[in-house]
Amino acid sequence: MRVSLFYRAARGVVRAALGTFYRTIEVSGLERIDPSRPTILACNHPNSIIDPLLLGLCEERQVCFCARDGLFRIPGFGALLRAAGAVPLRRRSDHAGAVDNEGAFAACRAVLLSGGVIAIFPEGKTHSRLRVEPLKTGTVRIALDAVAARPDLGLRIVPVGITYLVRHAFLSDVNVAVGEPIDVAAYTSERGATSPETVRDLTSHLERALKSLAVHVEATEDERLIAQVTTIVAGIRAEEGLDEGGQSPSERTALVQRVVDAYRWARETDPTATEALRQRLETYIDERARLGFGGERAVLQHRGERRGFTGVAWWAFLVLGAPVAGYGLAVSLVPYAILRVSLAFTRPSTYRVALVKLLGGASLFLAFWTVATALVAWRAGVWAALVFALTLLPSALFALRYVTENRLHRVQWRSAGAWLQGHRMAALREERKAISEALAALRQRYLTANPP
Hints:
Elements: H1 5-21, E1 24-28, E2 39-43, H2 50-56, E3 63-68, H3 77-83, E4 87-89, H4 102-113, E5 117-120, H5 138-149, E6 156-164, E7 173-178, E8 182-183, H6 184-191, H7 196-213, H8 223-239, H9 249-269, H10 271-290, H11 311-320, H12 322-346, H13 350-380, H14 382-408, H15 413-416, H16 422-449
Parallel strand pairs: 1-7, 2-5, 2-6, 3-4, 3-5
Antiparallel strand pairs: 6-7, 6-8
Helix pairs in contact: 4-5, 6-7, 8-9, 8-10, 8-16, 9-10, 10-16, 12-13, 12-14, 13-14
């Protein structure tokens, strides 16, 4: 299928934007996507609008995205979706009574029969949990519908798991794992493409594949525990001389998955001791939060592990970068404040937060900077306004980097008071040391019973 000029331009902008926001986007398994065969990319959905943007980078062909029909009614964004060739899907949860997706299925069928690729999120919703939600059957029914129309189509469903190590955070890491393709025709040979058993079995296969590619924590209350244990185990591995230079996003994802499995094993083999260690970890996490440390619940990788500025370079950056960062904050503060206040008052639903930030933020910053540049041109002339305009985006990005680096080095207001409470900080450090020793012993027993 021909890739439209609009789609090429949009993909270039997206690649640049994501490359600026995230430190590392690691995509593994791209060789599993056969560009000569029709393909359905089926992905988990942990981060709203960012997920399809990342998924689009996995394919050189133009991807036909399937999205909930409500998104097409958002002014501006709906037009972009239509221009990119996206297909609206009606969800039962959004509409009373039965829904008619025959038109959407026909559009997807046409793309697949022409050898194209569609992308869909079979969980049927975006969410912020560290798990793969139970899958809807729509993805499989679209695939079986296409195979029923042409049995020799050679259609494959390719599962893709996305894991954000520090969700929504600037200069964080993302792992995009492409799994083994699922041959749809192989499931239709015995029972046929319309059999309910075929739909069930193929959906189950896809769900297992997604759980193996992304992080899947069964219980919500275990998420911050798994995240905290992962950072401690990463420290233990570093002390052992492993992971020289830090872990890649895929290595960290694999470590988290191993921690999840170890937790399951520990609860089965010694539930009493495991529950006692869990309670100890929960108390430790709560104390960190009270002292101003901890950050997001779903942080799987402490950004302090990233090799940033250290020693003299850090102090030079802190002192010499302050004026530039101050300028960047000054020219960004007004649109940023307006955006934050707007979010607080409008309270957009969870799946729209990222979209509102992306489109609303871009509009606010562009409008404010345009007005500011016009005022500079009026008071100081065109050349001064041109220089001013050229400094706006770089200085704003530098200010964001400056604030991020300060946070990595614990220079932030919410944790400043902790350093004045020496006894609590000392107790927290001692408790972390004791917990690390307990986890190291548990890790050794697990590795002995479950060798890699």
